[in-house]
Design a protein that fits this description.
Largest sheet: 7 strands, parallel
Number of strands: 12
Strand order of the largest sheet: 3-2-1-4-5-6-10
Distance between the termini: 37 Å
Oligomer: single chain
Strand content: 15-25%
Number of helices: 13
Length: about 300
């Protein structure tokens, strides 16, 4: 298939593009800068210049492809404090893709989570403004688009990870001399190795039915305390429990420490015959590469 990949030079995209090419697909990578274009070209993909601020242009690019894998997000706007603005930009892009693909039976794969049937999990999902993106993608299933949602775990880890949850926790621990966690640290984060996640996107493209909801977590949930303890051990700083007030101050630039987001994956493994083979999160931390970089 000819596949348009947004976010092609990013953390996950830079693993998805080679995975697709290895599978025999023709890949067109969206690039918003010369540096991104060079990275996309070096991976063996065709370059399409553009950005999320031009939904009409992205719609045209989608119409020229057999499938779209949408991985890009306006992180700069989100990090500047305008999460709703970043979501609004993404919704415009999704609508352009959906309109371009409507009635064709072509594929649109995006990051998102639909209703799970678990009231607690569904409430947590709906509380995020980004949940609107998943609903928008799913809505095109009834318009003749093969839509697939992939729930990417909170921690997607590998030597390619430079801006995710783990680098942020390491930076905070280095800056403060404490590897902290909230309360007992029993809340769980799902995790997945970047290369296993990339392989799932390829399997989704090749095998998943229209309307599928997939879980890209290779580990359904890891207690945050265990993650903090591993970071503390590698940095030689104490891993300490923090009260809610202490955590709010300690993690003021990272308001996610108390999230409890396990992610069941058995149905995805069975549906796509997906067998993750790369290191677990704690094993990846023990390889040491996260601690040789200054974040």
């Amino acid at each position: 298939m000819r596949v348009l990949v947004t976010g092609a030079s990013g953390h996950i995209g830079s693993a998805v593009v080679p995975e697709l090419i290895q599978g025999g697909h023709e890949v067109v990578g969206l690039a918003r800068s010369d540096a991104s274009a060079s990275a996309v070209k070096a991976m063996g993909a065709e370059v399409r210049h553009g950005d999320l601020g031009d939904p009409a242009g992205l719609g045209e690019a989608a119409a020229d492809a057999d499938a779209v894998i949408h991985l890009a997000f306006d992180n700069a706007t989100m990090m500047a404090g305008d999460f709703h603005g970043a979501v609004a930009t993404d919704l415009a892009v999704i609508r352009a893709f959906g309109d371009a693909l409507a009635g064709t039976g072509k594929t649109l794969i995006g990051i998102g989570v639909g209703p799970t049937g678990d009231p607690r999990r569904d409430a947590a999902i709906s509380a995020s403004p980004r949940s609107a993106i998943g609903r928008e993608i799913a809505g095109f299933t009834g318009r003749g688009v093969r839509t697939i949602l992939v729930a990417v775990p909170s921690v997607t880890h590998s030597s390619q990870d430079r801006h995710g949850f783990i680098p942020m926790l390491i930076k905070i621990a280095r800056d403060t001399g404490v590897s902290g966690y909230a309360g007992e640290g029993a809340n769980q984060w799902a995790a997945g190795h970047t290369l296993d996640v990339a392989h799932l996107f390829r399997l989704a493209l090749e095998k998943a039915p229209a309307g599928a909801q997939l879980s890209a977590a290779t580990e359904e949930g890891i207690p945050v305390r265990r993650i903090a303890e591993a970071i503390g051990r590698h940095l030689d700083v104490p891993a300490l429990s923090l009260t809610a007030e202490q955590a709010a101050e300690h993690f003021k630039a990272f308001p996610f420490i108390a999230l409890d987001v396990p992610m069941p994956n058995a149905s995805t493994k069975q549906l796509l015959n997906w067998h993750p083979s790369h290191p677990t999160l704690l094993a990846d931390l023990d390889q040491g590469h996260y601690f040789t970089t200054t974040y």
